[in-house]
Amino acid sequence: MLKPQTMVLEQCCAPLMREPLSAADAEDLTPLFKALADPVRLRLMSMIACHEGGEACVCELTDAFDLSASTISHHLRVLRESGLVDSERRGTWVYYRANPPVVARVSTVLG
């Protein structure tokens, strides 16, 4: 899996309907789409991205699912490792926020 820092985020792909992806772009984008391919992760991403203030505490995210805290943590780790979200620990809680350049890249390809 590519680490977020190795992905070239400044370079954006053309929308799929305009021109085919290059092999390199497809390779870079695959971990992002894999991370979003799970319904729980897609919902988590949506909840984080549209949360008031631009970030959400893990305590606010876990209540929305009928899943264990460890399962939610796993899904959040996948989103974080893909680069779609960033996290910051504050005391006992972890806060998540969308990573705008990475989200914009996914949006551009789908747009």
CATH architecture: Orthogonal Bundle
Percent of residues in beta strands?
A: 5-15%
Compressed to H and E, one letter per element, the order equals HHEHHEEH
Domain count: 1
Widest sheet: strand ordering: 1-3-2
The CATH superfamily bears the name Winged helix-like DNA-binding domain superfamily/Winged helix DNA-binding domain
Low-confidence stretches: 1-10
Number of strands: 3
Q: How would you describe what is shown here?
A:
- The protein has 111 residues and is an alpha+beta fold.
- It has one domain: Winged helix-like DNA-binding domain superfamily/Winged helix DNA-binding domain (Arc Repressor Mutant, subunit A), CATH 1.10.10.10.
- It contains five helices and three strands.
- The protein has helices spanning 23-36, 39-49, 58-62, 69-82, 100-110; strands at 55-57, 85-90, 93-98.
- The protein has a three-stranded antiparallel beta sheet with strand order 1-3-2.
- A hairpin with a 2-residue loop joins strand 2 (85-90) and strand 3.
- It is elongated and about 45 Å long.
- The relative contact order is 0.21.
Describe the structure using short key phrases.
14% strand, alpha+beta, 111 residues, single chain, 3 strands, 3-stranded antiparallel beta sheet, Arc Repressor Mutant, subunit A, elongated
Indicate the topology:
Elements: H1 23-36, H2 39-49, E1 55-57, H3 58-62, H4 69-82, E2 85-90, E3 93-98, H5 100-110
Antiparallel strand pairs: 1-3, 2-3
Helix pairs in contact: 1-4, 2-4
